[in-house]
Write a structure and sequence with these properties.
Elements lengths: L1 E5 L4 E5 L1 H16 L4 E6 L8 E6 L5 E4 L10 H11 L5 E3 L31
Parallel strand pairs: 3-6
Antiparallel strand pairs: 1-2, 1-5, 3-4
Helix pairs in contact: 1-2
Length: 125
């Protein structure tokens, strides 16, 4: 389970490593061009119903942390799908088929989690 830290507060967002690797390519490509966009997802089944959206802008700090030391094999098709959605008015949308589908229970009041394969994220001290 990888983690995306967003903003000065370092808000942790848990995303499966392979999905995060693909999202990282799309996000860094857009931000390198100086473009702003949104990243959205539906909350996991074991979390309160709803969805979340982040506004990504080149001036907002962002950090990607991966649990696995090796970079996963990337899918050109998946990256192209993410880039197409990033260029749309809806921005990047993480969908369950891009993530593992085995739900892992989480504890209430944990930081934001993405997708259906989630684990509690403990902020770094």
């Amino acid at each position: 389970m990888g983690t995306l830290y967003y903003g000065d507060s370092g808000t942790p967002i848990g995303i499966e490593d392979r999905a995060l690797a693909h999202v990282k390519v799309a996000i860094t490509t857009k931000l390198r061009r100086g473009e702003s966009f949104t990243l959205s997802w539906q909350h996991a089944d074991d979390q309160p119903r709803g969805r979340s959206t982040l506004w990504l802008h080149p001036s907002i700090p962002l950090r990607f942390v991966f649990d696995e030391p090796e970079t996963p094999e990337l899918s050109r098709e998946w990256i192209e799908d993410l880039m197409r959605s990033a260029n749309s008015t809806g921005g990047i949308r993480l969908v369950p088929e891009h993530l593992d589908t085995d739900p892992i229970p989480t504890m209430p009041d944990q930081p934001v989690q993405v997708g259906v394969d989630v684990q509690p994220v403990t902020p770094e001290a």
